[in-house]
Specification:
Distance between the termini: 44 Å
Radius of gyration: 22 Å
Strand content: under 5%
CATH architecture: Up-down Bundle
Number of strands: 0
């Protein structure tokens, strides 16, 4: 073997090792961010549960907080994270991941909608605050995403009636908007005097920041997936 060929092989080997190292770093970074997001979810949900259970008997508002936070910020957040490349369901095949994603989405959506409706029935004036207005948007998009999730789950079977790509793109879009507006509504809920007086203003500000951070981390992967599929459809 000539010296020139050996040099080429050495360069190719170095490039391969470099790419492998970059992939390892990228995978490790994704895993750390995913773990960090799970921790933030636990913190926010835990704080909300402590607030909702602070009294021996839960009021309608307490029940509203517990159901909506458990539905949106826990189950729906985990349903979204389950579809990430390095999710806690990464050992399962795509079919089973989608099934568990759908189950968590259904349970989360139902709990969040029930939590919203019991508060609606408890009030005489509705959607006159930013908390309520964003909650209404979240309810609408969550309901649509819940139905749309079925068409996305059975996209292959329904491909003759509804393009699979359209079903998946709209499901991602509706789900992200529903979850994002639910988090914004929660942030405005944190600003209410009842929560600030319980948690103190300084802690409330920290919780609001952590909620914004974990919301951004949760929706990063759906945004990337949406962009990739949308761009792929345009380039075809």
């Amino acid at each position: 073997m000539s010296a020139k060929v050996q040099d080429v092989n050495a360069i190719e080997k170095d490039v391969f090792v470099g790419l492998k190292d970059e992939q390892t770093v990228l995978k490790a970074t994704r895993s750390i961010l995913t773990l960090f997001t799970h921790i933030l979810v636990g913190i926010i949900v835990g704080v909300c549960f402590l607030f909702g259970l602070r009294n021996e008997t839960q009021s309608v508002t307490d029940q509203h907080v517990l159901l909506c936070v458990f539905g949106y910020q826990l189950l729906m957040a985990e349903a979204i994270l389950a579809m990430a490349p390095d999710s806690w369901l990464s050992t399962l095949n795509l079919k089973h991941k989608k099934l568990l994603h759908w189950i968590m989405q259904v349970l989360g959506s139902l709990l969040a909608l029930i939590g919203s409706f019991i508060k609606i029935l408890d009030k005489n004036q509705h959607w006159n605050t930013l908390h309520g207005q964003f909650a209404l948007v979240a309810m609408v998009f969550t309901s649509v995403s819940l139905v749309n999730g079925l068409t996305s789950l059975y996209a292959f079977e329904l491909r003759r009636f509804l393009p699979g790509l359209l079903s998946k793109l709209t499901h991602i879009c509706f789900g992200v908007v529903g979850f994002l507006t639910a988090s914004i509504s929660l942030i405005y809920g944190f600003q209410k005097n009842s929560f600030r007086n319980w948690a103190t203003s300084d802690l409330t500000d920290i919780i609001i920041i952590l909620t914004a951070v974990f919301t951004a981390f949760v929706i990063i992967n759906p945004f990337i997936t949406f962009y990739g599929r949308f761009r792929g459809a345009i380039n075809k």
